[in-house]
Amino acid sequence: MADEVRLYAVFGYPVAHSLSPRLHNHAFRQEGMACYYVPVAVKPEELAVKLEAFYTVGGRGVNLTRPLKETVLPLLAGASSWVQATGAANTLRWSEAGWVGDNTDVQALVTRIGPWAESHRGQRVLVLGAGGAARATVAGFRHLGLRPVVAARRPERVTFAEEAIAWEAAPLAGPWAAVVNATPLGQRGESPLTLEVPLEAGQTLVVDWVYVPRTTALLARARALGCPTVDGLELLVLQARHAWQHWFGRLGPESLAEAVADLDHA
Q1: Looking at the whole model, is its pTM more than 0.70?
Q2: How do strand 59-64 and strand 91-95 relate by DSSP bridges?
Q3: Per-residue DSSP letter, 155
Q4: What's the first-to-final CA gap in the chain, in angstroms?
Q5: What is the DSSP annotation of 18-36?
Q6: What's the CA angle centered on 192, arms 189 and 194, to 5 degrees?
Q7: Residues 80, 101, 149, 216: is their CA dihedral positive or negative?
Q8: pLDDT tens per residue, the chain (266 residues)?
Q9: Which of 71, 100, 68, 104 minimizes the C-alpha distance to 85?
């Protein structure tokens, strides 16, 4: 099978919620490619063994979700500048030397908010969380000339941002040009995001990396205030298109978005 079909996968724990198999398998069918994409439940301590096993059965590309984006770094044979900037990798491809990492999360964010950032350079933005998505968000905002501030339960452990504050201090430390939820809070099956950061009506950009549900409570609140928003499904599709760049040397097709076009926008 390894000689006939190239396998791709999303590794994570949990991973059942991931829409990546739906995205990529739809696009593979549309493009007539002999590729197949599967979800694989992987705990951090299993990552090295399962990456090796995946290659032996035909695996040639992997997406990583929590909690593996930082765990994978010592296992990489090579890393892009985005991995070096974020300290996290979410996309791997097999090379003769081994697995090579990229971070398409940060590429997706930069692509999506680049036009907005042009008129907000130098302003402060709030990033909720301290995991892989937060690392990508900080790197993306920094690349676009903004000043990211991380809100974390243990701000003293945040090493990837110049400024970090206690989680509970976030509502008092604004104003913020943008607020980003880079945690799983608000995702179906997770605890809700109860932290209410002040939003300036019609002004504050609100981004939520959660995509199940697509319209989170944070995004619903922002839209009720007329704020510009970016939802997690938009970012998922964009990072998937950039993953194809890493795997196949070309940006992924628009058919990736078609795979989730029927999901709720409300």
Answers
A1: yes
A2: antiparallel
A3: G
A4: 42
A5: --HHHHHHHHHHHHT-SEE
A6: 170
A7: positive
A8: 445 789 999 999 999 889 999 999 999 999 999 999 999 999 999 999 999 999 999 999 999 998 999 999 999 999 999 999 999 999 999 999 999 999 999 999 999 999 999 999 999 999 999 999 999 999 999 999 999 999 999 999 999 999 999 999 999 888 999 999 999 999 988 999 999 999 999 999 999 999 989 999 999 999 999 999 999 999 999 999 999 999 999 999 988 998 888 875 44
A9: 104
What's the token pair of residue 147?
Answer: 């000043």
How many residues are listed for the chain in this entry?
266
Query: Any catalytic annotation for residue 50?
Result: no
24, 69, 112, 241: the catalytic one is 69
- Could you tell me the two tokens for 33? 């490619």
DSSP 1-67: -TTT-EEEEEEESS-TT--HHHHHHHHHHHHT-SEEEEEEE--GGGHHHHHHHHHHTTEEEEEE-TT
What is the enclosing helix (H) or strand (E) of 114? helix 104-117
Backbone angles phi, psi at 178, to 5 degrees: -150, 150
**Interacting residues of 36 by C-beta distance below 8 A, sequence separation 6+:** 5, 6, 7, 8, 25, 28
